[in-house]
């Protein structure tokens, strides 16, 4: 570094178009401001691209030779590097007298093969994602053999698999070059995930999630687990809300048709919905993103409903159960003359509310003992439950007072 800063100055960097991999730099000696001073144009990039730009090469002793006779050998060296899973990069230069950027007639300096190190954490992450039913596709700017080698090492595919056979037989290959295409691809994705330091500012702005640098594929496993946990919680919350709305509507319609009066008012239905939102939201964060959710692949696609067949069966069962209990109390109460109609309506409303509370516990999908342990340990849920039940008592008394005063 001291050599370059003391004796040479960088005239300016050179960038290629998006369909090429690499770049260059133009340098000159310090103190030589004359236009006729010989400058050096250095290029680096993909070995195949650089090799096509070269007409000569340096040997190990520093002698210059014509490249034409040895070009096939250099191409074979590049292919051997790719077959070994290396990324071949070439360095070349050309002395020039004017600031004329030329991409031909270069002198080849060196061929270097870089090894892409794949850690055990990345392999474990790929295995966990595949076990979770995730289809992994490797999109790479490298040559085909290099990409296949990386896929083997990561465990994305195995030798003799249909994907590898299709690639080796020369089926349709797609390419994506440059940062602009990368940014467009991230924006078109349902969820764009980029690494903090390895992508452009435009790509980071168009992404949805930015992961810490240097962690490889490890962040994808917890992202998937928490994503499926959120998906599962949304399904449960929809089921709870739908059960409360339909059962309340069914009870109101049947009783209104039979007796002419509704046992549950619109304000009471809103109150029950408020309870579900408070306790249901707290319940969703009580259960951690369990590892078992990794095996539960979302069944809903873009155009399909979030409600599964099992959810529909549970929904119908709960609606029938809640409506039956409330209707039995309603019509059995008419035979008991010791209680007033307002008292029976209050009993129906309390029963309907408690059904929703117990349905919340039923939606936790834990064993009975586990539900008790989880609820006892979560003091915030207990506080929310006590506050909501206290507010429910106040709501009943206040509603009764308002109704009596209005009458």
Automatic annotation (TrEMBL):
The answer, when asked if Transmembrane is one of the entry's keywords, is yes
Ranges that cross the membrane: 237-257, 269-289, 310-332, 344-361, 381-406
| Keyword vocabulary terms for this entry | Magnesium, Membrane, Metal-binding, Transmembrane, Transmembrane helix
Q: Write out the GO MF terms.
A: metal ion binding; nucleotide binding; P-type calcium transporter activity
- Where in the cell? Membrane
- Does Magnesium show up as a keyword for this record? yes
Q: Name one GO cellular component term.
A: plasma membrane
InterPro entries (alphabetical): ATPase_P-typ_cation-transptr_C, ATPase_P-typ_cyto_dom_N, ATPase_P-typ_TM_dom_sf, HAD-like_sf, HAD_sf
Instruction: Name the principal localization, coarsely classed.
Output: membrane
PANTHER family per UniProt: CATION TRANSPORTING ATPASE, CATION-TRANSPORTING P-TYPE ATPASE C-TERMINAL DOMAIN-CONTAINING PROTEIN
Q: What is this protein called?
A: Cation-transporting P-type ATPase C-terminal domain-containing protein
């Amino acid at each position: 570094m001291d050599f370059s800063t003391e004796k040479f100055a960088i005239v300016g960097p050179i960038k290629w178009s998006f369909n090429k991999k690499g770049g260059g730099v133009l340098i000159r000696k310090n103190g030589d401001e004359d236009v006729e001073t010989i400058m050096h144009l250095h290029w680096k990039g993909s070995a195949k691209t650089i090799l096509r730009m070269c007409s000569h090469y340096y040997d190990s002793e520093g002698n210059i030779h014509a490249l034409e006779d040895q070009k096939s050998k250099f191409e074979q060296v590049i292919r051997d590097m790719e077959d070994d899973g290396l990324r071949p990069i070439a360095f070349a230069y050309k002395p020039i007298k004017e600031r004329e950027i030329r991409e031909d007639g270069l002198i080849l300096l060196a061929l270097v093969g870089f090894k892409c190190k794949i850690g055990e954490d990345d392999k474990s992450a790929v295995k966990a994602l595949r076990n979770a039913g995730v289809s992994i596709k490797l999109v790479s700017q490298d040559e085909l053999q290099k990409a296949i080698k990386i896929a083997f090492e990561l465990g994305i595919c195995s030798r003799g698999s249909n994907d590898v056979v299709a690639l080796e037989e020369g089926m349709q290959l797609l390419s994506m070059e440059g940062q602009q295409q990368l940014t467009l691809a991230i924006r078109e994705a349902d969820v764009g995930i980029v690494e903090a330091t390895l992508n452009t500012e435009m790509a980071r702005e168009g992404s949805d999630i930015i992961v810490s640098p240097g962690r490889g594929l490890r962040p994808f496993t917890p992202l998937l687990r928490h994503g499926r946990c959120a998906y599962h919680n949304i399904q449960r919350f929809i089921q709870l809300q739908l059960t409360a709305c339909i059962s309340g509507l069914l009870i109101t319609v049947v009783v209104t048709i039979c007796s002419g009066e509704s046992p549950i008012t619109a304000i009471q239905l809103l109150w029950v919905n408020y309870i579900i939102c408070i306790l249901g939201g707290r319940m969703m964060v009580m259960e951690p993103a369990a590892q078992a959710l990794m095996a539960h692949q979302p069944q809903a696609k873009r155009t399909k409903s979030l409600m599964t067949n099992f959810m529909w069966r549970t929904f119908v069962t709960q609606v029938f159960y809640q409506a039956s209990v409330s209707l039995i109390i309603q019509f059995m109460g008419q035979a008991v003359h010791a209680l007033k109609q307002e008292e029976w309506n209050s009993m129906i409303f309390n029963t309907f509310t408690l059904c929703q509370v117990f349905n919340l516990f039923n939606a936790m999908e834990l064993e009975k003992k586990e539900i008790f342990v989880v609820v006892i340990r979560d003091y915030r849920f207990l506080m929310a439950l006590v506050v909501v039940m206290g507010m429910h008592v106040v709501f009943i008394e206040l509603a009764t007072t308002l109704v009596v005063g209005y009458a």
